[in-house]
Amino acid sequence: DSGVTQTPKHLITATGQRVTLRCSPRSGDLSVYWYQQSLDQGLQFLIQYYNGEERAKGNILERFSAQQFPDLHSELNLSSLELGDSALYFCASSVGLGHYEQYFGPGTRLTVT
Amino acid sequence: GDSVTQMEGPVTLSEEAFLTINCTYTATGYPSLFWYVQYPGEGLQLLLKATKADDKGSNKGFEATYRKETTSFHLEKGSVQVSDSAVYFCALIKAGGNYQLIWGAGTKLIIKP
């Protein structure tokens, strides 16, 4: 158990809908990262937050957004969903900014039908 | 840009065989290097890391040495077990800038009893 929790574990929704994925980092970790894992694109970095502020953006679509709250949990919002958004979405946390280990949650499997 | 290249899988071995999974990287400066493992149906677990040249990371019988001269971080284990069957990902955090993980494509390892 990494100490990072993600909910829900599975999500099935229809095209055009909006969903919210939730992540709670390990106790004491200030950085949260979101990654997408899909069969065709592999693992890709989406976005990073540190202590409530956005720090870096990767290959995140404009339909996607995220935030980190004062209690350090984070939410990833995916809207106008398309079939191609079906993937595993992982949250990871680390103690701070730098070359620290990132600890991953169990992921949320999103299926768009 | 920075990238990670892993040997293609699947790699199929018999129990107690010697394992090598090749990983090479392209990056400026001195990235930190990681191996993560993903067991079937689970999230990503940090296996080992190395942060500077000639560092050796080790965990659970697995080892990898940071070779700057060959830009490599090959994963090795002397005697694999059926329980080692999983997908192994090599990744880096580049020097300077963002602290996102840049991933290899993953190598599926199958160990037969």
Short description:
Chain A is built from no helices and eleven strands.
Structure description:
The complex is a heterodimer of chains A (113) and B (113). Helices cover 0% and strands 53% of the residues of chain A. Chain A is mainly beta and 113 residues long. In chain A, strands 2, 4, 5, 6, 9, 10 and 11 form a 7-stranded mixed beta sheet that branches. In chain A, a hairpin with a 5-residue loop joins strand 7 and strand 8. Chain B has 113 residues and is an all-beta fold. In chain B, the strands form 3 sheets. In chain B, strands 2, 5, 6, 10, 11 and 12 form a 6-stranded mixed beta sheet that branches. Chain B is globular, with a radius of gyration of 14 Å. The interface between A and B is medium-sized, with 26 and 21 residues.
| Count of discrete alpha- or pi-helical segments spanning 4 or more residues of chain A | 0
Largest sheet of chain B: 6 strands, mixed
C-alpha end-to-end distance of chain A: 31 Å
Largest sheet of chain A: 7 strands, mixed
Gross geometry of chain B? globular
Gross morphology of chain A is globular
Reading the helices and strands of chain B in chain order gives EEEEEEEEEEEE
- Computed Rg of chain A: 13 Å
Helix content of chain B: under 10%
How many strand units of chain B?
12
pLDDT < 50 runs, ≥5 residues of chain B: none
Task: Walk me through the topology.
The complex is a heterodimer of chains A (113) and B (113).
Chain A: E1 5-7, E2 10-13, E3 19-24, E4 31-38, E5 42-50, E6 53-57, E7 64-68, E8 74-78, E9 87-94, E10 103-104, E11 108-112
Parallel strand pairs in A: 2-11
Antiparallel strand pairs in A: 1-3, 3-8, 4-5, 4-9, 5-6, 7-8, 9-10, 9-11
Chain B: E1 3-6, E2 11-14, E3 19-21, E4 23-26, E5 32-38, E6 44-50, E7 56-59, E8 62-65, E9 75-77, E10 86-93, E11 102-103, E12 107-112
Parallel strand pairs in B: 2-12
Antiparallel strand pairs in B: 1-4, 3-9, 5-6, 5-10, 7-8, 8-9, 10-11, 10-12
